[in-house]
Amino acid sequence: MPGLFTIGYEATRIEAVVDTLRAAGVAMVIDVRAIAASRKPGFSKRQLAASLDAAGIAYVHLRGLGTPKAGRIAARAGRTAEMRAIFAAHLRTDPAQAALAEARHLAPTRPCCLLCFEADHEACHRLLVAEAVAAETRQPVTHLSVPPPDFFNN
């Protein structure tokens, strides 16, 4: 059975994320952001999907697995416990359960990676999504780290 991965793109560039995904053998990225838009170049939905496609990596956005606004605010403020509580409540909703079922269906079919913003998986809801998926699929979860951009070679 393929592994399940997670990745955050905070403090890095799209090229480094794609290189990390390819090196890990990821075949599909499951975007678990509520809003698949980003101020970081290359990470909005269309640009991200195009970069992944060029690298031979499939892309799917499961909006229902995104953190509600209150959870995003808590995460940005460093209130991880509050974010987790908000997301846990959200995960019990019908839209989240439908998206979770889709993730549980996709994850065992090929190496998949859950993508969100935060670099530290411990501070991100994608850890909770990974745990919920792996609880059913029994896949091992690997949290990928992306090297920060080289200061002199931006």
Describe what this molecule looks like in 3D.
With 154 residues, the chain is α/β, with parallel strands linked by helices. It has one domain. 43% of the residues lie in helices and 14% in strands. It has six helices and five strands, in the order βαβαβαααβαβ. The chain has helices spanning 14-24, 45-54, 69-76, 80-91, 94-106, 126-137; strands at 4-8, 28-31, 58-61, 112-116, 141-143. The protein has a five-stranded parallel beta sheet with strand order 3-2-4-1-5, with helices on both faces. β2, α2 and β3 form a beta-alpha-beta unit. The model has no long low-confidence stretch (mean pLDDT 94).
Strand order of the largest sheet: 3-2-4-1-5
* Measured distance between first and last alpha carbons: 37 Å
Low-confidence stretches: none
Number of strands: 5
Largest sheet: 5 strands, parallel
How are helices and strands ordered from N to C?
A: EHEHEHHHEHE
Task: Write down the overall geometry.
Answer: globular
Mean of pLDDT: 94
Beta-strand content estimate = 5-15%
DSSP summary: helix tally: 6
Structural classification:
alpha/beta
